[in-house]
Design brief:
alpha+beta; Beta-Lactamase; Helix Hairpins; Heat Shock Protein 90; six-stranded antiparallel beta sheet; five-stranded mixed beta sheet; 24% strand; binds adenosine-5'-diphosphate
Amino acid sequence: MSLKPHEYEGEKALAEVLFNSIGDGAVTTDEFGKITRINPTAQQILGYSEEEAIGKWFPDVFSAYDDEEQSIPLIERPVTRAFVSGRIISEKIRYKRKDGELIPVSMTISPIMVKEQPVGCIEIFRDITKEYEIEKMKSDFISLASHQLRTPLSAVMTYSHMLLDGFMGPITKPQSRSLKTIVSATNRMNETISTLLNITRIESGSIAVARKPITITRIIDEVVTEHHIAASEKSINFKIESPDTSIKIISDGVVLKEVIGNLVSNAIKYTPPSGKVTVNISPKGSQVIISVRDTGMGIPEESQASVFSKFFRADNVVRQETSGTGLGLYLAKGLVKELGGDLWFTSKEGEGSIFYVSLPLLPQSIRTQTVRKSIVNE
Ligand code: ADP
């Protein structure tokens, strides 16, 4: 059914009113990337008037920057990718206001399709400065609280060790048992504090990643040594398989050790007594793959998509009440990304899991940042 001219005018006016009433910033372009509409909220966020924006090339008005305040090349900009791919793209980026200030925005850009041809784009975006500030306050608080907790905790650790080792006189068997419980609880608390600090560093982009030649088997040997007692207490058959013991990569040994240590500790924790945990190192093309395989309880299929989310613990492990925070894999995923690699897994409930870490064999460009701190691993 075609519209009569006055009805068409009415529809057009209504569309205009609706567009201008959108509470978020909204902007449309034609197929050449020229701005065709910009609503009042977008004008207010960016500081450009309608007259200053309409008819201009979109990237000239909407200068886009990444989280490190680097200008995003035209080819990588969401608007270009949406137009070229015909897909809807949602991202968090920064736009430069007319007054020069960079503001973080959450945006969704969709190609406008007519008869399967893109004839322009529509973008909806929202100023998320407040959300960024709240996130930063949260991170700063965790960081401060963790540092404040760490100082008294080191005193507890030092003195418990001294008492346990008999530096302050002989102790009885029950006293020794109690002290061992204190030491293991403070160790756990210390690990949780390190995890929290490292997470805040990753989330604020201030983690330092070294680039030094490292021999992978040496790192894995250290991890295995550290987890040897935990494995033997559960009579777990714990071994390394490595076809080539000389594989060297340019990476950060401390970060890699933290990642593999995390995977190994999970494998031991979630494998019933007398099971098997195997670490394998194999080169594959331009990468090296480190896998940690266990014959443990596995991850239920419905939980698999959430395993790398913060605080997530699957029902099957929670039921068994094993201790855990649900932060280890979230941190490991972030750390592997910092190393320029990837972390993924396959798992079957009741049969076991395999976690894989891939790392580039050749040096990768690792982001440089202004404020960078070393990973906390003590
Ligand atoms: P947690 O402190 O709970 O171990 P992680 O972030 O390390 O936290 O792991 C998140 C969840 O993923 C675990 O609670 C568990 O449900 C699941 N998971 C991780 N590794 C394994 C594994 N090897 N076998 C079975 N489940 C695992």
